[in-house]
Structures are given as C-alpha cells and as structure tokens.
Amino acid sequence: xxxxxxxxxxxxxxxxxxxxxxxxxxxxxxxxxxxxxxxxxxxxxxxxxxxxxxxxxxxxxxxxxxxxxxxxxxxxxxxxxxxxxxxxxxxxxxxxxxxxxxxxxxxxxxxxxxxxxxxxxxxxxxxxxxxxxxxxxxxxxxxxxxxxxxxxxxxxxxxxxxxxxxxxxxxxxxxxxxxxxxxxxxxxxxxxxxxxxxxxxxxxxxxxxxxxxxxxxxxxxxxxxxxxxxx
Length: 231
Prior knowledge:
Blueprint: E1 3-7, H1 11-23, E2 27-31, H2 37-43, E3 48-52, H3 60-68, E4 78-82, H4 87-96, E5 100-103, H5 108-118, E6 121-122, E7 125-126, E8 132-139, E9 145-151, E10 154-159, E11 168-169, H6 173-179, E12 186-193, E13 201-207, H7 212-226
Parallel strand pairs: 1-2, 1-3, 3-4, 4-5
Antiparallel strand pairs: 6-7, 8-9, 9-10, 10-13, 11-12, 12-13
C-alpha cells in the first residue's frame, strides 16, 4: 500500500484515478490546484505523485521542475498524465524529471502497471527480487536496438525508436534461441532517456504469456550468465 497525491484541474479525472488507486489498497490525497502541491508534499510523506501535464496557471512540466528543485523531493516517483504521445513531449517530461507517463484516456491497467514500476515493482513483485543479468546483445528489429538486460519478467533494451506504452515488440528468432525459450511477444512498459547516447531511449518490456517451462529455462540462463565461472 502506498500514499499517493494526485493533481488535475478536472475533478472527473481525479475521481477516476482515485477509484483505481483505492481499489488497489492505496491511500489517496487529491487537489485541483497545482500551486498547492509543494505545500502538500511538504506536509507529509508521499510514495508517489500523479500529475496532469496541462493545467491552468502552471503546467505539469513546470510543476515537476519545481518539485525536483526541492532536495527532499528529488527522488519522489512522479507519473505524468498526458493526451500527447509524440517524442517531443515524452522527452520534455523526462527532462523535467518524471519517472513515467500515462497516455489519456485513462486505462486502469496501465495506471496500475505504471505505478508498480515507479514504486519499484514489476508484475506486483519488487524488481530487486527478480533474477537479472546485464548483457550486450545486438538484436534485429525495425530499429537500432540492443538488449542490455535480461530478467525473469522481460528485457531492457536501448533503442532509437519511440513506441506507445503497451504496444508489442518481438525480437528476432536468434535472441530467443540464445536464451533457449520459445518466441514470445514483449509489451513495452516504460521509456527513459538514455543519457549515454543522444536520441536513444532505454525501454523496459515484459514477456507476454511465457510458459512455466520457459520461465524455468530463462531463470537458469540468467543464473548461468550472471556467474559463468560457477556454471
């Protein structure tokens, strides 16, 4: 359970978000006034903030910048709601300091998934508990892409592509063969700017409907790749 502050100038959006979050067992505070946010955040401990991008007086991008200037709030997980999905707005949000974004209209599954990610969870499990290994595996896809991490839930790739959250990607057959698992689609969960290479993004994606057998094979592959000497 987390304590979450939500801010949007539209009460109907706040109502939808609040219902979604309360159903997950979270505590929720809300405001329609973005100018109150800093005072509210300073008044008690919050685990995350969900803010709209477009609000009167001060937009979400400027609000996030102001929050990040506060040393006590620099690590607060922030999700931005936006009606736009173009690369420029995604990058603008990343530059401001958001940890994730949700495209309107609001989808409950996406909100829950994104919140789990920024709170340090994946598929309801703390990501720190997942077996994973850093790799450097060039793969064939529609865009310039390299897998940089394989974990039990999915992969992390570096790419110059921008695709909508929840869209699917399937890497080349050789990648799955190298892991020893059946070809499986990946659903994109999150984009972050790759500071090491201009114009590139780090993308987190999870496997869809991976079988129990393939999960066991993947777990063994990760263990072997993480400790090749012992293997």
